[in-house]
Amino acid sequence: MSRLLSRLLALVLITAGLALPGPAQAAPARSAAAITRAMQPGWNLGNTLDATGDDETSWGNPRVTRELLRNIRAQGFRSIRIPVTWGQHQDAAHTIDPAYLARVREVVDWALDEGFYVLLNIHHDSWQWINTMPADHDAVLTRYEAIWTQVVTAFRDTSSRLLLESVNEPQFAGSSGDAENYALLAELNASFHRIVRGTGGGNGKRFLVLPTLHTNADQGRLDALTAEFAALDDPNLIATVHYYGYWPFSVNVAGGYRFDETARAEMLGTFQRLTDSLISKGIPVILGEYGLLGFDRHTGTIEQGEKLKFFELFGHLARTAGVTTMLWDNGQHFDRTAGNWRDAELFAHISTSWRTRSGTAESDLLFVRRSAPVTARTITINPNGTGFTHVRLGDTTLRRGPDYQVSGDRLTLSAGLLQKLTTIAGYGVKASLSLRFSCGVPWRLDVISSDRPVVQPSTGTTDTFTVPTTFNGDRLATMTATYADGSFAGPHNWTAYKEFDRAFSPDYPAGAIKLTPEFFAEVTDGAPVTLTFVFWSGETVGYQVTRTGTTVTGVLL
């Protein structure tokens, strides 16, 4: 094109409000902090390529398809963590099975093609063989370096949206203490960094993710990782920790069945430490896994309303701190066959927390005793910075005054409303009220007709013992177990409160409470154990079990 024609075309375009493209310029380099922000939110492809069996389906999940990844992307996730366990796919010379490496490459490429940022790691190798490093230092380091040398060579020129994580939840057995642990982890991380950077190409500036010891956010762990960042002096490094909450709450043990002030304080303290120790120093943070540990057995281990309060606050703190979060999902959340969320209400709270806050309340359960006169009931609401607006029952907006009243953070439901809602015969949920706030997800409040639960005597064995229970609409929260002298019986003998779904569990359809073989394995033979079943209505019911060999007898108290 001649210079005159170019000027004439430019004049026409300017007149039309358009412009010619300028000379091509290289895209500005993105910082580690910018990449970390762009990855929010993230999801884990758990129990798949990290499974320790022969195949990615060995832990119960279906084979990964591109359609699955496309579906996850459609849920709003921008990044995907692909945990990989490599050890069982290595031969004696530490060579990775080419077919397996190709399969990992295929899944990574699909994820990149779907627009994800991808985080690839070494996963369960951490506790399978890397943890023996104190006693077998050279052999472990050689094997670790062999894995990363092969992996980073295979991905040398892959998109910069691929990030690499040195090792999942690093741990060391038989070490002399934290000083040795920190030194061993620093050695692994430095070796990883050297191998990646040494292969050149896209790996020369690839973003690398380094964990704390145990991927834990205790202060000593954070300080040690901060020192590693200073020593490596590389702007393309990102820190990672995991978060599964205050342990008694996360598994429902030791009386931690509520998301109470202790559990809240533990979460607040974690994010404050991340802010003070890393983020304030310019070190971005990826929370590479989060959730509740009880989910590994059953998502009902923690009561629904309590877990919703946990995830609502967690999302808020992560968002305000600028931490990228990657939901741990080993198949218990997103149904990879049906292509939907197993608990849509939970995902609504999680995904909404990426953008804003939601109001909650002290509970999502309101028990109205069927055998007693109905009275007005007051609960505490937690607006969480939003504004309470109204209450709905289905499509009907309830009337402020006749149906409910609000004073500060106290919501009172009238006796007339509760009487009307519970007139239907029988026990159980009679209505689900929707508490509405100025933004976020509504809070569901179930109005439940109930009476005191009733238990019956029983005999059985340590393998198959159940307490016949008429729940009368109530729900089991926890259980204590003590001997006659007041000492604690069963597993976790440092607390009276036993672990939900491990020592005991309710079976509502069968009308029973099951005591597990694991519970009786730590019960003294011939010593009566007093059980107290604690229900969400506030009711408690006493029971006594005695183990004699493999025989168990249960009587009322």
Short key terms for the protein model shown above:
alpha/beta, Carbo-bd_X2, signal, 25% strand, Endoglucanase, 557 residues, 29% helix, 5-stranded mixed beta sheet, 28 strands, carbohydrate metabolism
What does this structure look like?
- There is one protein chain.
- This protein has 557 residues and is of the alpha/beta class.
- Helix content is 29%, strand content 25%.
- The protein is built from 14 helices and 28 strands.
- The strands form six sheets. It has an eight-stranded parallel β-barrel.
- It is globular, with a radius of gyration of 28 Å.
- Residues 451-554 form the Endoglucanase B carbohydrate binding domain.
- Residues 56-333 form the Glycoside hydrolase family domain.
The average pLDDT is: 94
Number of contiguous helices: 14
- Low-confidence stretches at least 5 residues in length (pLDDT < 50)? 1-28
Given the helix and strand composition, which structural class is it? alpha/beta
Major sheet description: 8 strands, parallel, barrel
Number of strands: 28
Strand order of the largest sheet: 1-2-3-4-5-6-7-8
Cα end-to-end separation: 98 Å
**Helical residue percent?**
25-40%
Q: Give the C-alpha Rg.
A: 28 Å
What percent of residues are in strands? Answer: 15-25%
Estimate the global geometry from the Cα principal axes. globular
